[in-house]
Amino acid sequence: MHVAHVLRKLDPAAWGGVETHVHALAAALRARDVGGTLFAPRRGPEDEAPGGAPVERYRALLPVLGPAERRRALWAVGGNLISLDLPLRLARDARFALAHAHTQRRVGGAVRVAMRHTGRPYVVSIHGPLLSAPAWVAEESARRRGRSLDVGQPWGALVGARRVLRDADRVIVFNRAEEAAVRTHLAPHGRAERVVRMSQGVDARRFARGHRRATRRALGLDDET
Predict the structure, then answer these.
(1) Closest C-alpha to 171, from 79, 92, 108
(2) In which region does residue 128 sit, left (phi positive, over 0), alpha (psi from -120 to 50) or beta (all else)?
(3) Cβ pair 65, 149 in contact under 8 A
């Protein structure tokens, strides 16, 4: 079995929590004989992620009109990208029994279109507040967007960006608040049972090899700090 893990950002110079999670997930699945390929926008030459997972870069566009500085900032966090390349590649590639979208909106919509068109399942992971904190999400989106103008809504409608969660075969969440909010959202469509909560955890064996003093020295911290 082979899984396509789809991200909106994969830049080793700007590594974040989602990337760390996907890296650990891909490694855990490999240990269970489940292969995985990471799909991310073309923002670097890497064809392999840290840890050895293969990476395929898809062409993407940030459909935003505005100052170059604002566009760069939106690119740095993945923005709300559009990609014609991604759904075509997923639809044509018969290796993948499953797609795992680690983002929603238009990139998630591209996954939705490709997998539904070819009769294969897809799952979505919600890696941060989405439906459980709508006011915060709206405020944060407005802050990042600033005075720029997003012109990608027609593409979002075409790929069903607002239906990504509703049509997913499973929606994975990581806390009780998001679980309750997503279940409430999907209940009118008879799909609340598709929500799965995965508790976060730490691999104690991995971190048992750490060395506190060596780490603090490497970071330039005094032991008394």
Answers:
(1) 108
(2) beta
(3) yes
CA–CA separation, 195 vs 182, rounded Å? 7
What is residue 78's predicted lDDT score, i.e. its pLDDT?
64
The interaxial angle of helices 85-92 and 105-117, nearest 10 deg, is: 30
Would you say residue 46 has pLDDT above 70? no
User: Domain range holding 199?
Assistant: 2-218
Q: Are strands 64-65 and 122-125 parallel, antiparallel or unpaired?
A: unpaired
120 versus 133: the higher-pLDDT residue is 120
Percent of the chain with pLDDT over 70: 92
Q: Which residues pair with 4 in a beta bridge?
A: 37, 99
Residue 160 CB burial class (10 angstroms; 0-12, 13-18, ≥19): middle
Strand, helix or coil for residue 123: strand
Q: Does pLDDT of 91 surpass 90? A: yes
pLDDT digits (tens, 9 = 90+) for 185-206: 999 999 999 999 988 777 777 7
Domain CATH code at residue 106: 3.40.50.2000
- Asked if residue 62 belongs to a domain, the reply is yes
Residue 74 placed within a domain? yes
Tokens in use for 159?
A: 């790929």
Q: Is residue 192 part of a domain?
A: yes
pLDDT at 177 over 70: yes
